[in-house]
Amino acid sequence: MSTGRNQGLPGEFELIARYFAPLAKGYPGAFGLLDDAAVIRPADGRDLVVKTDAIVSGVHFRPEDPPDLVGRKALRVNLSDLTAKGAVPLAYMLDLMLPRDVEEAWVAAFARGLAADQAEFGIHLIGGDTDSTPGPISIAIMAFGEVDIGRMIRRDGARAGDTVYVTGTIGDAALGLAVLCGRDSRPDPTSAEFLIGRYRLPAPPVSLGPHLVGLATASIDVSDGLIADLRHVCEASGVAADIWSDHVPLSEAARSILARDPDALQSVLSGGDDYQILFTAGPAAADTLAVLAREFRLSITAIGQVTARSDQASHCVSVFDPKGRPLPLDREGWAHF
Ligand code: ADP
Ligand code: MG
Predict the structure, then answer these.
(1) For the whole model, what pTM was predicted?
(2) CA-to-CA dists, residue 135 to 56, 74, 114, 138, angstroms
């Protein structure tokens, strides 16, 4: 819908033609972004898996973050959900709300970032909306993927006796944000660059996702924080979970920070923005998971155990230190309100 012109920008339709229509090339159902709506035709026997997530300047990214990375992050926070659900990504829609003083160069770089990720993940932009806003830059993406009918991996399938796994490393984004905000002093420059990079550009294991269908009993992406997201799985599944803190996979950079500041473990366990995949699986899955980890060159780490839920428990996720003592947690994860 048209809502007036941004002063620093060409008109809405010029913006779409210049920067977004090229991203629709190659997807027949996008009709070159020249129609009112798009068509997605999932393959026979497949369900369409749908997810939307927005990122807002000042909340999910910083106004000075490079715009190409902002575009890629906006897309990847949706792809991580599709990945967790076992879906193969197909296409996405983009609702872009821009303040009037945004420069065209910002939009150009933003679209370049999207183009790079489209090539990496094999998906296309198929439509959206462009508006002006009196508020900060807001980017809502809706992503579509597909999975065999009825096979989407849900949150509610975890059972006592399952193992809790997580992909990649945890805590890098939260530590990176702490560095950016000046809350963490003096990490060495290489670590700082790595951690900030993980905050700005999450790397969900998109190609692994579909292989978790039939293996994972429940799955979620780590966006709010490891403990909070595991709690979501436990609540949906009616179970509890024990996590062994020393099993939580850490990057070298995160390790170096923890060596200096053990309290940073709190940020690792409860900080958000990792966009890795947290899932549960029965004992029979272990060998296949080891093969997949090698095949996709990523780590898949067992970090704990699903247990039966006792009614008295005030919280369903418990974290234990290497000596088996429960770790008190100040907060479980990020919440907007
Ligand atoms: P309408 O007038 O029906 O609301 P628009 O004029 O907003 O439609 O959009 C025209 C076309 O451009 C549609 O195909 C729409 O999906 C596409 N479009 C608009 N904004 C974007 C965007 N930010 N990204 C991708 N496609 C867009
Ligand atoms: Mg229309």
Answers:
(1) 0.93
(2) 9, 18, 23, 8
- Work out the widest C-alpha separation in the chain, in whole angstroms: 63
Contact call for residues 178 and 267 (beta carbons, < 8 A)? yes
**65-122 pLDDT, tens digit each:** 999 999 999 999 999 999 999 999 999 999 999 999 999 999 999 999 999 999 999 9
Ligand 1 centroid–CA 96 distance in Å is 10
Q: Which of 323, 279, 22, 306 is nearest to 167 (CA)?
A: 279
- Which tokens in the block code for residue 201? 């550009």
Which of the 8 DSSP states describes residue 61?
B
pLDDT 10s digits, 157-179: 999 999 999 999 999 999 999 99
CA of 31, closest atom in ligand 1? 14
3-state class of 6 per DSSP?
Answer: coil
Cross-strand bridge partners of residue 70 = none
Nearest residue (CA) to ligand 1, atom 1: 1
Residue 42 Cα to chain centre, angstroms = 23
Give the containing element (helix H, strand E) for 94: strand 88-98
Which residues have C-beta within 8 Å of that of residue 162, sequence separation ≥ 6?
A: 217, 218, 280, 281, 282, 305, 306
Half-sphere exposure of 11 (CA within 13 A, CB side): 5
Tell me, using a 6 A CB cutoff, whether residue 71 lines ligand 1.
no
Question: The tokens of 323 are what?
Answer: 């000596």
Residue 125 Cα: closest atom of ligand 1 = 25
Does residue 16 line the site of ligand 1, with CB under 6 A? yes
Surrounding residues of ion ligand 2, Cβ less than 5 A: 36
Supply the residue whose CA is at minimum distance from atom 7 of ligand 1: 1
Please answer whether residues 78 and 72 qualify as being in contact, where contact means their C-beta atoms are separated by less than 8 angstroms: no
Closest ligand relative to 127 C-alpha: 1
Six-digit token string for 133: 């806003």
The SS3 call for residue 53 is strand
CB 32 within 8 A of CB 24: yes
